[in-house]
Each structure stands twice: as C-alpha cells, then as structure tokens.
Design a protein that fits this description.
The radius of gyration is 18 Å and the shape is globular. The protein has ten helices and five strands. Strand 3, helix 3 and strand 4 form a beta-alpha-beta unit. The protein is of the alpha/beta class and about 220 residues long.
C-alpha cells in the first residue's frame, strides 16, 4: 500500500508543486490538500493520512495548533513540518506539539521523499544539528528552564550522559566514539532514555534536554 499524504500550505502553487513531486513516486499518494490549519484538521480526520506535510505559518489556524489537534485526535497520522527558516520559533512549537520533525522548504525533492518515508515508518527526520541551533537561539532569549529538571531523575548517570549527547546533535556512531561505547550499546541506552521519559523520538529528547536545563546554549 502506498504511503498516503495530506499536503497543507496556504500557497496553492506550493501545494501543487509538492503534489507533483510526490506523485512521481509509486509508493506515495497525495490524498488531499488543505490551505490552512482548520482545513487540515478536518481533512486529516476524514482522510486519516499516514503523513501530514504541514506548513507552520498559515491564516485561520496556524500549523502548530493544527499539529497538536491532529495528533490529539489519535488518527495515527504523523506530522512533518515544512518551514522557510531554519531558526523558526514556530518549528519548535510544532516539535513541542508532537511533530515528527521539520524540513526547510528548499529541501531537495529526493530528501523530502526520503523524509516522508522515514516519518511514515515511525522515525524522526529533523536534523539534530538544526534543532540544536534553533533551541540555542530560543533558550538564549529565555534561559530559565521551562520544565522541572527532576523529570530526568529516572535516568541513570550514563543515560543522562547519552541524552546530553543526543541534544548536542550527535549520531549514535558519534556518541559511541565520544563515550567509548559500542554503537549497539548506545542504541540500547537511547531506547531506554526514550522509554523512561515517555518520548516518541530523538527530536522530543532534544527538546526535553533543553527545557529541563540539562544542556544550555553553547554547552
């Protein structure tokens, strides 16, 4: 079965272009379009797409609110946010709302297609380094942790160390080299961190690490 996609953007030309790009692949099917967040919420409930390709800056209802509403509805749809700016605070809002990641609108078509496939498979596709850059800027503006650091008390010392490495934008291979561990061991630690903290993916782990003050800008 093809991966079904709902394309959400307030610009008709962008929606049409995305549908053309995705329609060129047999394993992807655009099942609908929406011009704002309100329409996206309705169509996501009706069509139950595997992936919602979501713009964040839209009239009527913005993409962050729409993301939260779609995920709260429990349809099983995953949300992949697209934004013009890699330092877009709206993108962080979408990640906090549960989006599986975000891409820039100038992402090459082949990378977009790969990202949709990854999100449909349950993975996060946002570049950790882009997320870190975004969080660095926002937390520099508001340095007080917004969540209780005690949330991390369920982690062992090693797991906290791994979480810090994730927040620094490092891959499993890079973490393994930094901490002198095997990649298999790192993968196990990452899985335990996500499970203990009730997180869906590495993106949420990065956000939580910053919001609890485990890591700080430049740290």
């Amino acid at each position: 079965m093809p991966i079904t996609v709902l394309v959400v953007d307030d610009q008709e030309l962008m929606r049409m272009g995305l549908e053309m790009v995705l329609g060129a692949h047999d394993d992807l099917e655009v099942v609908g379009q929406a011009e704002n967040g309100a329409a996206a919420i309705g169509k996501a409930g009706e069509l139950r797409p595997d992936v919602v390709l979501m713009d964040v800056r839209m009239p009527v209802v913005d993409g962050v609110t729409a993301t939260a509403r779609i995920l709260e509805a429990g349809t099983g749809s995953k949300v992949l946010v697209m934004t013009t700016f890699d330092l877009d605070e709206h993108a962080l809002g979408a990640l906090r709302a549960g989006a599986s990641g975000f891409l820039l609108k100038d992402t090459p078509p082949e990378d977009l297609v790969s990202a949709i496939r990854s999100v449909a498979a349950g993975d996060a596709v946002v570049s950790p380094k882009v997320t870190k850059r975004l969080l660095d800027r926002l937390i520099a503006e508001d340095p007080v942790p917004s969540r209780d650091p005690a949330e991390l008390d369920v982690l062992t010392a090693r797991e906290r160390e791994v979480l810090g490495q994730i927040a620094a934008g490092r891959s499993n291979a890079e973490i393994a080299a930094e901490l002198f561990l095997s990649e298999a061991t790192v993968k196990t630690h990452v899985g335990r961190v996500l499970t203990k903290l009730g997180l869906r993916d590495r993106v949420q782990a990065v956000v939580l690490a910053y919001e609890t003050g485990l890591v700080r800008p430049g740290g």
